[in-house]
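Pilot study result, target chain (310 residues):
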Amino acid sequence: MNNIHNRQVINDVLIENAKKDKDIIVLCSDSRGSASLSEYAKVLPDQFVETGIAEQNIVSIAAGLAACGKKCYVASPACFLSTRSMEQAKVDVAYSNTNVKLIGISGGVSYGALGMTHHSSNDIATLGSVPNMRVYFPSDRHQTKALFEHLLLDNKPAYIRVGRNPVEDIYTEDNTPFLMDKATLVHEGGDITIIASGEMVYPAQQAAIELETHGISCRVLDMYCIKPLDTEAVLAAAKETKAIIVIEEHVAIGGLGSMVSQLLSAAHPVKVISMCLPDEPVIAGKSPEVFAYYGLTAENLVKTCRELMG
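Predicted structure:
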């Protein structure tokens, strides 16, 4: 079982690159511990900015630094970064097209026990609706590493959501297929397709493996690139399989499922089932408890796929 969380991987990639590039600046809103960036702050104090609990200010400060040629990485809880900082993200980062990467830590229901105030179940809908803002939900530590290595090469805005706890590996250190802004094919299949992102990719993969024992061939797409959506992969799935299930740690409105449905309703209508969080205050509990309560599990995916296939 993997015990290295994605936050630690981000710290390691940023330290490695910031040692060679003095323009890389990391900013935290009293969250260096939660973001696993304490080591970065200790090793590179001159390339670290602590603003305290000031999510709106931190985004504007990062945008100002970026306008002066710096490459800024802002780490803050996703629930606050995607809501309190909405105007600054829209105007100072996206509209101004500054080189700021917004890292939403402890995303989704990672803070599950703290209730709705600390859930970030609508960040695709908010930040994904902003022109120039890319949105990424990496699925495991290996993909997170690959994503950040690529983000370091560009100067465009982006929002990246990672969870709080370690997640099971989908890939390996020696086998992490990755193309920027292209979905990764996790499991081949011709009967049905599951499109997943973030922490939902692992249960999707496990469901596909189980479905093989029932004679169902299930394609699994790791849609880490929420925006820009890999429309080519979605359309291919619609044309080559009988139905699509989208599973995500987000509400239905404005989420990945709605993006997939909007695309396919216009281009190639097929049955699309959205498995997601409800449009209501989500129950309090640990992430696995919340996922189980709302059916965001491999078991429920298997059940739903078998019902679809008759």
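One observation from the pilot: The CA atoms of residues 68 and 159 lie 21 Å apart. A full batch analysis is planned for the follow-on phase.
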